């Protein structure tokens, strides 16, 4: 059973690692969450912003088990409501979506995100866009994606992981 301590331990143990970006995983998570919080996002969306790349950390801990946008929500689903896990599950699709609906969006992606986009099937087709716009949580996923893109600044000053522990505990379904 996943609990908050296990989730926090992922970031403590593996957060210094990098994935496709110059900024470490923990720094990226904290920046993304801080951007969500400063935008006035709901608590669940701030948590999603913090945890959106937990699948990368799970792959470091356990070995690859599938796409990070599938692994993280599966790992977190027993602990958090869908309002946390749905935007996480859709944040890669949201990048593909934004590339399709905003032509200039792609040019603003980091080199790492442009590379991963190629591995993630590129921009969506018109049909995929229409389907994406019917998915529960798609609007939150797009917001999360924008914070994800902006949360890649080396040395940015943001609140630490411990500052999010009460939020995570308050959202945990099991009350842990």
Identify the notable features of this structure and list them briefly.
mainly alpha; Hypothetical protein af1432; 10 helices; 176 residues; globular
Could you characterize what this model shows?
There is one protein chain. With 176 residues, the chain is mostly helical. It has helices at residues 4-14, 25-38, 43-51, 54-62, 68-76, 82-101, 111-119, 126-132, 138-150, 165-171. The protein has one domain (4-162): Orthogonal Bundle (Hypothetical protein af1432), CATH 1.10.3210.10. It contains ten helices and no strands. Helix 2 packs across helix 9 and helix 6 crosses helix 9 (138-150).
Write the layout of secondary structure elements.
Blueprint: H1 4-14, H2 25-38, H3 43-51, H4 54-62, H5 68-76, H6 82-101, H7 111-119, H8 126-132, H9 138-150, H10 165-171
By DSSP, the count of extended strands is 0
Silhouette: globular
Question: Which H/E pattern describes the elements?
Answer: HHHHHHHHHH
Output the CATH class name.
Mainly Alpha
* Assembly form of the protein: single chain
Q: Tell me the number of structural domains.
A: 1
- Beta-strand content bin: under 5%
CATH topology: Hypothetical protein af1432
Our count of helices gives 10
Distance between the termini: 11 Å
Radius of gyration: 15 Å
Chain-averaged pLDDT: 90
- Runs in which pLDDT lies below 50 for 5 or more consecutive residues are none
Task: Briefly say what this structure is.
61% of the residues lie in helices and 0% in strands. The protein has 176 residues and is mainly alpha-helical.
């Amino acid at each position: 059973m996943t609990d908050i301590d296990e989730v926090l331990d992922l970031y403590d143990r593996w957060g210094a690692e990098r994935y496709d970006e110059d900024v470490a995983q923990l720094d990226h998570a904290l920046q993304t969450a801080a951007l969500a919080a400063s935008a006035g996002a709901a608590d669940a969306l701030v948590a999603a912003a913090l945890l959106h790349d937990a699948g990368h950390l799970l792959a470091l801990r356990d070995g690859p088990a599938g796409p990070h946008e599938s692994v993280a929500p599966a790992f977190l689903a027993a602990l958090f409501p869908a309002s946390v896990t749905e935007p996480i599950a859709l944040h890669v699709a949201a990048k593909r979506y934004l590339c399709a609906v905003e032509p200039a969006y792609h040019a603003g992606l980091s080199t790492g995100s442009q590379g991963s986009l190629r591995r993630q099937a590129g921009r969506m087709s018109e049909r995929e866009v229409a389907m994406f716009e019917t998915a529960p949580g798609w609007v939150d996923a797009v917001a999360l994606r924008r914070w994800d893109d902006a949360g890649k600044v080396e040395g940015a000053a943001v609140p630490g992981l411990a500052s999010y522990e009460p939020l995570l505990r308050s959202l945990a379904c099991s009350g842990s």
